[in-house]
Amino acid sequence: MNLRNHMTTALGALTLALFVGAAPVARAEAKIAIINPNKCLEEMSEKKDAQQRLDQTITQIKDLDSKKKADLQKAKDARDQLKAGTPQFDQANQDYLKQAIEYDAWIKITQANIIQEQKVMLINLYRKIQQAVDTVARKD
């Protein structure tokens, strides 16, 4: 008998909770938007400006590369004009090897710097897109 009273009370409480819960509640509508980050990037003036700066940097690096290659070739030609086995040849060879190694290191460092600059540029642009999306999502 005691169990029956508890069951009846629990059933009554559940029924009351369902009716109270069924009252109309003001709900916020969810707004969903989809963006294509790549399309946004292509349309951003900041991306176009950054790309122009990067292109200018690459042009300057190519000019400097040509100069370094010419200097390296001059050192090689100067070495080749000397008789092998002489102290002058050995010194010119050391100078040439040093320049060649420095050139190779410069190439690798320059490439790494350009890649890093491109990554930072893209990260900053994606953050800007994310901030704009966040701003639009928080409106209203």
**Percent range for β-strand residues:** under 5%
Radius of gyration: 36 Å
Helix percentage range = over 70%
**Any low-confidence stretches, pLDDT <50, length ≥5?**
13-23
Order of helices and strands: HHHH
* Average of pLDDT: 81
Main sheet properties: none
Determine the number of helices (DSSP H or I, runs of at least 4 residues). Answer: 4
In total, the number of strands is 0
- Supply the helix-strand structural class: mainly alpha
Distance between the termini: 57 Å
Structural account:
It is built from four helices and no strands. The chain has helices spanning 2-21, 37-43, 45-80, 87-138. Helix 3 (45-80) packs antiparallel against helix 4. It is rod-shaped.
Give the topology.
Elements: H1 2-21, H2 37-43, H3 45-80, H4 87-138
List the keywords:
140 residues; 82% helix; mainly alpha; rod-shaped; 4 helices
Short synopsis of the structure:
The chain has helices at residues 2-21, 37-43, 45-80, 87-138. The protein has 140 residues and is mostly helical. Helix 3 (45-80) packs antiparallel against helix 4 (87-138).
